[in-house]
């Protein structure tokens, strides 16, 4: 099975998800999305394929979220996408892509749905 994880090594949920994938015997393609962020179109596609709204994919716990005024409910999806591309730390993680679909694996157990 071909699996890609958009991973942040400092995130416990991301590390747990990566371990769950490896426990299946598959070595996924690991993308350090902070160093290699997805393009705006790729990010928009991941979010849509995961069945999420753009706001669901933003890390609202990051201080930068509030500093940029993204907590304003009037902030558009386009503005949120632009902010996530400009500041990848704002992308919630981990996104996992398999042949069975895409999930934002928070909690990490959600990865089981697509393995």
UniProtKB/TrEMBL annotation:
Coiled coil: none annotated. SUPFAM superfamilies: Thioredoxin-like (SSF52833). Its EC number is 1.20.4.1. GO terms for molecular function: arsenate reductase (glutaredoxin) activity. GO terms for biological process: response to arsenic-containing substance. Keywords: Arsenical resistance, Oxidoreductase. It catalyses: [glutaredoxin]-dithiol + arsenate + glutathione + H(+) = glutathionyl-S-S-[glutaredoxin] + arsenite + H2O. InterPro entries: Arsenate_reductase, Arsenate_reductase-like, Thioredoxin-like_sf. NCBIfam families: arsC. Belongs to the ArsC family. This is Arsenate reductase. It comes from Massilia cellulosiltytica. The gene is arsC.
